[in-house]
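Q: Protein A?
A:
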Amino acid sequence: MMEMHLPVLQVIVPLLSAAICFLLGRGKLPWMFATLVSWVTFAISILIAIQVSDGSTLQYELGGWEPPWGISYNVDQLNALVLVIVSGIAAVVFPYALRSVEREIAPEQHGLFYTAMLLCFAGLLGITITGDAFNVFVLLEISSLSTYTLISLGKDRRALTSSFQYLIMGTIGATFILIGIGLIYALTGTLNMADLAERIPQIESSRTLQAAFAFIVVGFGLKLAMFPLHLWLPNAYAFAPSVVSAFLAATATKVAVYALLRFLFDVYDVNFTYEAMQVQYLLIPLATVAILFASIVAIFQNDVKRMLAYSSVAQIGYMLLGIGLVNATGITATLLHLFNHALMKGALFLALGAVCYRIGRTSIQQMAGLGQQMPWTMAAFVVGGLSIIGVPLTAGFVSKWYLILGTLENGWWPLTAAILIASLLAVIYIWRVVEVAYFRERPEGAPDVKEAPLSLLLPTWVLAAANIYFGVQTDFTVSFAKGAAASLLGGAP
């Protein structure tokens, strides 16, 4: 009986738990409760993924109202994959949070912090699972408003400025999305995504529909940090608390990419997206510039958090490039990279959080000699770095390999070269950290540093090990990504 309610429990459990967490006040109780909720939610996502692994689709009608009159939650292989990665990252990050939050956030704000984390978590899961276009906007705002709060809790005063900048940019993006959804509703009289997919082909020549498409693409472009709409991201990641940086880098932009995919392929159809609107001619140039320009900018960053933030802009470029390739291999590469990049950036930011716990900052110069004094932490950083580069036997290699195959299928050799050049640039910025950590001595007069506590190391190494496991054992990710890509491109000529 419980199995049939799993889709709604996926969102309701963390959403209602946020209110309970707020009432728990200070101390370790909010952390213990939030961690338990994250594990329960991860278990739910695994059960849902098992149910749709054969290619079937789950549908849950809220309140017993049949769509399109009522809101429905729909789960297929595409959003099952995203649900697993979002809830999986949360299940790793929440246990990590205890020691990190104690060091970086004032005790009286701990209850507020875990409440905001659960709200952000619930919003991201809701965006992923809902089958209602307006519900996407509502849940997007739930996750965004809590994200602004989380970023502002950083101990550096610049966290407030970063949060405000993100609030302005995020509000513009959300407004664009709402305008686009409103225009679609004015044309069709429905907000149910499946119903929209049936009605839109009848009005494909409408200029209003095309305007709605443009608003939605730009709106989600802001949310996912598509170049050149990425300016909010570096400061947001750099000055947020370490736990928040890790969680957002691994989940928020991935959910936005998913939402864009859902609108491009399911609400609008493939022919409209690629033939009428020719979105590939927008995505491919911007994505190519992103993977090269952002990688170059990352090389010159002195703060490792900012370096990884610009790296994220480049990695998002890979995902958008896959969408622009207009073939199943490219879409498969996008979905694989969506999953794998969460593992990479999660491991890297958690390792940085452990460094920040011990030395209080994340500038490259301050990390001199940490390879000897924090060997397990820096080893996890190296594993995540190798995955970012795309070294064989890491998760990053798998998705980049599919992306290269997608470019070769189209005969687009310059794009293949751009991917390889960007990977070489990644070698440079990762090597800068490795060189300082392993081949330089601690600054004179600097105190010796101990290895990070086990409560920080274990979650970090769970994600570091996942980078290796999913680089070797690709059955789960590749089968889900291929099935989802085939489903998305089902109407392609």
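Q: Protein B?
A:
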Amino acid sequence: MMNPVLKGSILVAIGACSYGMLTTFVKIAYAQGYTSQEVTFSQVFLGFIAMLVINLIYSRKSTKPTVKSTGKAKLKLILAGTTIGLTSTFYYLAVKYIPVSIGIVLLMQSVWMGVVLEALIDRKFPSFQKVLAVLAILAGTLMATNVMNDAVVLELRGLGWGVLAAMSYTGTIYCTNTVSLEVPSLRRSFWMLVGALVVVSFLTLPQLLEHFQVDILYKWGIVLAAFGTILPPLLYTAGMPKIDVGLGAIITAIELPAAVLLAYFVLNEQVSWQQWLGIFLILMAVVQMNLRKKNSTELPDSQSQNT
């Protein structure tokens, strides 16, 4: 059977790639005249509906005894889910004022934020392996987004929203790793989406009540919900508990090459050799982390068999 850490890493990686695809979709939606409020609300609302239906179908077809979630566990998950809504809200606001490449760079600050958060919680300095991987990913991030070669004027609003998006994204990674793990993954995702819908509704409804283009629900809402609200929470809640917060934050960096590749194939954006080299550097750092982590978890078993 697949090693639990490796399995968790793959699930988280797929979830991160799903998030990476959103950048291209949102960029197209903006070009068609939709607002950040419409994009964010349609994504979270349809994701909530879909997750509700999935849970209802699963609960009826499942032959396993139903594990009831306590009110305390539900409340924790709802509060944790606000980080999902905040991440979408902040990130979509950020890319309104700054280039998408800069927005992705800012969101990827969750890499070092996650490692720092883990170090603070565990009260120990991160291993040299993680520090080296973080440095490699950050260097690859700068290369992959071609930031150094772009003459851009950055607005403080965009920078601020981007940093807030990275902070809330770090919170999402932490919460999916630690909050109410006794609750099945499907139900954890549902209650977290309840929290996401509450915070997004609170932030967007004032503007949407004045103007809302309903057609976004079927034009872009379904796609955005699938890749931004349904798949990532399901994959994160299933995969994150199998790995630690720092490793989870590092693996989510795959979101960057996913975003660049989709932009290359769908939007026909030119990607220089420096950008391809940066993508390769990020992927190699992630692979190295997973291989070493996998070997370290298998070592005690192999040692015990030799004794």
